[in-house]
Amino acid sequence: MSSSADSRTVVLIPGDGIGPEVIGAARRVLEAAGTGLSFVMAEAGGAVFAKGIKSGVTPETIDLIATHRVVLKGPLATPIGKGEKSANVTLRKLFETYGNVRPVRELPGVPTLYSGRGVDLVIVRENVEDLYGGIEHMQTPGVAQSLKVVSRKGCEKIVRLAFEVARSEGRGKVTCATKANILKLTEGLLQHTFDDIAPEYPDIVAEQMLVDNCAHQLVIAPEQFGVIVMTNMNGDILSDLASGLGGGLGFAPSANLGSDCAIFEAVHGTAPAIAGQDKANPTAVLLSAVMMLRYLGKFAQANAVEHAILVTLESGVRTGDLAKGGPSVGTSGFADAIIANLGKQSTRWAVRTGTPLSFPPAITPAARVVPAQRRVVGVDVFAEWGGDATGLGRALEAAVDGTPARLVMISNRGTQVYPATGGAQTDAVDVWRCRFVARDGGAMGDALAIDVMQRVAGVAPWMHIEKLQEFDGVEGFTKAQGQS
Ligand code: NAD
Predict the structure, then answer these.
(1) Contact 190, 209 (CB under 8 A)
(2) In the chain, what are the domain boundaries?
(3) How far is 78 from 212, CA to CA, in rounded Å?
(4) Minimal CA–CA distance to 141: which of 433, 463, 379?
(5) Ligand 1 atom 13: the closest Cα is on which residue?
(6) Which of 10, 238, 352, 479 has the smallest number of Cβ neighbours within 10 A?
(7) Could you confirm whether 212 is annotated as catalytic?
(8) Which residue, by CA, sits nearest to atom 20 of ligand 1?
(9) Is 132 part of the annotated catalytic residue set?
(10) CATH class of the region 1-96+258-355
(11) DSSP state of 85
(12) Known catalytic membership, residue 179
């Protein structure tokens, strides 16, 4: 939780489209509930882009967030194709909100495909690493590459956050969903880190699952899950899937949590088609506000607002998105009904009372994992070649002939194509990974690696190179498909 100046002042960002309406409704409910919060208004999104600020966030807004560290925001529109950054991503990165927390639960009067089964889960998604670093390069005009960056430090933080969320909400199980069977080093890092940290939480069942199976299980038996922790892209996709297990976008809240900053918002966007018409459903933003109250340790007020939401939905009051043509109220009418129900408790629908969330340590110096031993055993040189594998392989072997380096293999899109492994068919592209090691099986120094690069360049242009490192005798690289 924030340790800075005044954790009871919340930065309110109305945002774009339906944002001002749903944020306005949430503010009224929070004020009526006697939460003791005060609000400062801040700008981000469309109006800021219109001023020519490409990040979508003004310096004043950044200062306010830096001071108060708790934000409740409406959705922000990202203009397409004018060089602007997503204002949402700007905020997440600026304040290192590394954990995206998305609860999904069954709500009264909100029919879903799973009604009656008691769906009640939380997805905890790593929010800043993985493929979303957006480090991409065209290797050749026909081959694109994206770097998937996963760190031990990032995994430790997100895994601890997942267990802390479970503990604070009294949830008995955390599932770590990864693609570690294929991505042994990146996804595997989350898997191993989870195994390392789980024993610190003996009161919580820790479970590993492959993310594809997790997708399947979420659809067939979502009630089995408590908290699910995932890397960024897997979490992005499965948290949206999970929103569909609940009542959909009008009911999906979220929190972007960092060690010292938290941004709460509905999952939905600006819904431009219904903006300014008092039609938007404010429940998602209100449930986000309930998460915020718990984050601030205001459990009684959080429970009061959540109960009022449950009682209102139970009584059949609904906005147009849920009414599907039947009787409905507008955004402000829905907020009025919730305010009128403050102090009432649902007898059929429970709220999770919870205990304060405890955070992994705040931002620390650049993480360094220091092995006792390390050595470079070879290099992968990625080169452009329009011919076939045999032609490239023979040319490279000739190029390093008589040097201390030898070509081990060439792969194309991850599959070994030289020496041929027999029987396999590979529909090759013009980027080839050429793996070299020291002929004597020893270490490959920089001088030899540079010599290899120059010799490769004499055969085919190279676009990048990766050292093959061993840490404490463990290979820090994967083998190609088909490589023995
Ligand atoms: P959207 O969520 O705005 O709308 C999808 C559909 O759901 C629409 O039919 C909309 O009317 C409906 N809907 C969404 N929220 C609703 C609510 N509270 N009540 C009733 N109906 C609701 O998604 P989109 O159309 O893909 O995106 C529109 C804009 O929002 C885009 O500019 C996008 O970049 C932005 N966006 C922002 C955020 C954010 O700021 N966190 C998230 C998603 C999309």
Answers:
(1) no
(2) 1-96+258-355, 98-256, 374-475
(3) 30
(4) 463
(5) 271
(6) 479
(7) yes
(8) 280
(9) yes
(10) alpha beta
(11) P
(12) yes
CA of 84 to the centre of ligand 1 (A): 19
Decide: 84 in ligand 1 pocket, CB within 6 A: no
Q: Which of 132, 321, 380, 418 is catalytic?
A: 132
Chosen CATH of 374-475 out of 2.40.50.100, 3.20.20.70, 3.30.70.1570, 3.30.1330.30: 3.30.70.1570
26 within ligand 1 shell (Cβ under 6 A): no
Instruction: Tell me how far CA of residue 36 lies from CA of 31, 47, 254, in angstroms.
Output: 7, 29, 22
Distance CA 430, CA 138 (A): 12
Q: Is the CB of 19 under 6 A from ligand 1?
A: no
DSSP 280: -
- Token duo for residue 309: 């939401």
- Give CA–CA dist 275/23, Å, rounded: 13
Tokens of 65: 């967030």
Whether ligand 1 lies within 6 angstroms of the CB of 239 is answered as: no
- What Å distances lie between residue 87 and 43, 52, 212, 282, CA to CA? 11, 13, 31, 21
What number does the ligand 1 atom closest to the CA of 76 have? 40
**How wide is the angle at C-alpha 413 spanned by C-alphas 409 and 419, nearest 5°?**
25
Residue count of the chain: 484
Can you tell me the distance from the alpha carbon of 349 to that of 109, in angstroms, rounded to the nearest whole number? 11
- The type of residue at 5 is A
d(CA 306, CA 271): 24
Ligand 1 in reach of 331 Cβ (< 6 A)? no
Is the CB of 271 inside a 6 Å radius of any atom of ligand 1? yes
Please report which confidence band the pLDDT of residue 468 belongs to, taking 50, 70 and 90 as the band edges: very high
Measured in Å, residue 179 CA sits from the centre of ligand 1 at: 29
Of the candidates 290, 382, 229, 274, which has an alpha carbon nearest to the alpha carbon of residue 105? 290
pLDDT higher than 80, residue 375 = yes
Q: Which atom of ligand 1 is nearest to the CA of 74?
A: 40
Fold of 98-256: Isopropylmalate Dehydrogenase (3.40.718)
Percent of the chain with pLDDT over 70: 97
Q: What angle do CA 428, 429, 432 make, to 5 degrees?
A: 90
Tokens of 455: 């010799």
Count the neighbouring beta carbons within 10 Å of the beta carbon of residue 442.
Answer: 12
Has 240 been annotated as catalytic?
A: yes
Active site residue 260: no
Q: What is the pLDDT of residues 129-165, one digit of tens each?
A: 999 888 999 999 999 999 999 999 999 999 999 999 9
Q: What is the per-residue pLDDT across 274-322, written as a single tens digit (0 to 9) for each?
A: 999 999 999 999 999 999 999 999 999 999 999 999 999 999 999 999 9
Q: Please give the single-letter amino acid code of residue 317.
A: V
Q: How far apart are the first and last CA of the chain?
A: 50
> Both tokens of residue 192?
């191993």
The answer to whether 13 and 23 have CB atoms below 8 angstroms apart is yes
Q: Are 98-256 and 374-475 equal in CATH topology?
A: no
